[in-house]
Specification:
Rossmann fold, 10 strands, alpha/beta, 6 helices
Length: 243
């Protein structure tokens, strides 16, 4: 890919992560000199959070952030009519699969040194918060883009990971919802709230959606730098690279 007129090497491959006897397919993309890795928990609410080279993925990769897009539902779950009717159990299931994927990445020597984060949309917005609550030291940043982060329920009080909530500013119901979630996150947790003017539910408008991508990328980059600490050089992926 090309960034700012300069060529950046990007390594990508299809992966499969085993969870509870099932294989979840995904796409792992790692830019050269990656400074962090983001696990993407997408859902139908913001369908443009998908495996591919453009959109959110391209924005993250241009900033030197690797991504793992994982299909968090199996084919039979995709077809199940009651999938969205049992949001509580499904949020916990997606969160568990995210945690397993995060642990799977940690076992890869070439990736284990990278700070990691979760980004969720739709039901994934709640699932990334639940996963963060379950593994307070597991990731260094969380972003929710639209969706229903309130479905994380009582576990919101256990989130200690820096969290950015991005909401649609033109949807009064979702504005109230995301403000409530922000207030329920612990006061001592680093947290941010961005309500984007011109955005309605599902972020169908391209300009605010692109703004959301940039905000998410900036949050991850900043949190990953903070996690690395002052004076720590960027990880290069080379055996003799500084850690």
């Amino acid at each position: 890919m090309s960034v700012g007129g300069m060529s950046m090497r990007v390594h990508q491959r299809d992966v499969e992560v085993g969870v509870g006897g099932r294989l979840l397919s995904g796409r792992l993309v790692v830019p050269e000199r990656a400074a962090g890795l983001v696990l993407l928990a997408g859902d139908e609410e913001v369908p443009r959070v998908e495996a591919g080279g453009g959109g959110l993925h391209g924005t993250l990769h241009a900033a030197g952030l690797a991504t793992l897009w994982l299909e968090l539902r199996t084919a039979d779950e995709e077809m199940a009519e009651d999938w969205t009717l049992r949001e509580g159990p499904h949020v916990e299931l997606i969160a568990h699969r995210l945690e397993v994927a995060r642990d799977w990445l940690q076992r890869d020597e070439s990736l284990s040194l990278l700070p990691m984060g979760y980004l969720g949309t739709g039901l994934g917005s709640a699932a990334v918060l639940v996963a963060a609550a379950h593994q307070p030291g597991g990731v260094q940043a969380v972003v929710t883009l639209g969706g229903r982060p309130d479905k994380a329920g009582a576990l919101l009080a256990d989130v200690r990971v820096p969290t950015l909530l991005i909401g649609a500013g033109d949807d009064p119901d979702r504005v109230a919802l995301v403000r409530s979630v922000f207030d329920r996150l612990p006061a001592e947790t680093r947290k941010g709230l961005q309500l984007l003017d011109g955005a309605s539910r599902g972020f169908p408008e391209p300009v605010p959606l692109a703004t959301a991508w940039r905000l998410a990328t900036a949050w991850f980059s900043d949190c990953f730098r903070a996690a690395a600490g002052p004076g720590v050089l960027e990880w290069t992926g080379e055996q003799d690279g500084a850690v």
